[in-house]
Amino acid sequence: MFLPKENNKTTWGSAFLAENTEIRMADGTFIIIQNSVGKETWTDQQGKTKIIRIHKFDTTETDHPLLGIGGNWMTDFHFIWARIDSKWHRAFEIRGVKKTFRNSLKGLVYAVELDTDDYLTLRGGIPAATFGNCLIVEPHRQGYTQDFRFKIDQALRERGLQKAHIIEWHHLGVGHRADGSLILDTERIKPPQWATSGQREQGSETTRISPQPQRRVNLECGKCRKPAAQLKCACLATYYCDIQCQREDMPEHRQKCTHMIPKEINT
Fold it and tell me: 77 near 65, Cβ under 8 Å?
């Protein structure tokens, strides 16, 4: 069930924008992505949509260049709506895109998390996907999206970041493999800054904070539910005691496995 090494190429995810990208708000004004937390966005859906978190990712010199579409800069796998054929496309599939935009060789990219399933509207009226692969963009990924959000919320609670507005990640914590299956490495979420330095400023005094011991996570087998499962499915969402448990669970697991579903859809 593990991907062959040659097929394990990673790409950026589907919702990463360059710094200072402007998002259309509910009142028709535009606000840059870094200042948009807590704001209501423009939507053509019923009800209101609010930005609850911004996820900020490190990049390296070897990452792909950012692509420019209608004055908006994004990673090459970002999903946007193309008016020509009225479909969602990856940014690199759009004709006439500009390439290579970075303020520095190692810049930052940002992803917007909404309180409901919806897309963003950028400058030029361009609809763009949001963090977590919103189902409006990929409706066939129901289990994929729900599992993604569950794992993000769980990881933030474990780190005491569930109320944080800005979540910082080390490089490539979220992305896709070449076959479209999900990569979600929540261990790449950066701890709060005060926990990293081991101290917190309180007025004129500095209080030392002892580092928290790392907790060992006992992963439950997807078939027999026993703890300490070690065998990992290629979707990275389910673990098993051994190959026998994995085989017995396969008829049910294949219906929600983010590694197998894209292949079955394509075939």
Answer: no
Q: What is the pLDDT of residue 210?
A: 45
Residue 182 bridge partners (DSSP) = 176
d(CA 31, CA 122): 10
Dist CA 211 CA 208 (whole Å): 9
DSSP element (H, E) containing 240: strand 239-240
**β-sheet with 87-90: strand ranges across:** 30-32, 22-24, 120-122, 126-128, 79-82, 87-90
- 64-115 pLDDT, tens digit per residue, is 778 888 889 898 888 998 888 889 998 888 887 877 666 555 678 999 999 9
Q: Side by side, which strands form the sheet with 10-12?
A: 10-12, 174-177, 182-184
The pLDDT tens digits for 20-31 are 899 999 999 999
3-state SS of 174-202 is: EEEECCCCEEECHHHECCCHHHHHCEEEE
DSSP 92: G
pTM of the prediction? Answer: 0.68
Angle made by CA atoms 261, 264, 138, in degrees to the nearest 5: 50
176 alpha carbon, distance to own chain's centre: 10
pLDDT of residue 54: 95
208 backbone dihedrals φ, ψ, rounded to 5°: -70, 140
Which SS3 state, helix, strand or coil, does residue 166 take? strand
Q: How many Cβ atoms sit within 10 Å of the Cβ of residue 259? A: 22
Average pLDDT of the chain to the nearest whole number? 78
How distant, in Å, are the alpha carbons of 153, 174, 190, 243, 250 from that of 159?
10, 17, 9, 32, 32
Distance CA 160, CA 151 (A): 14
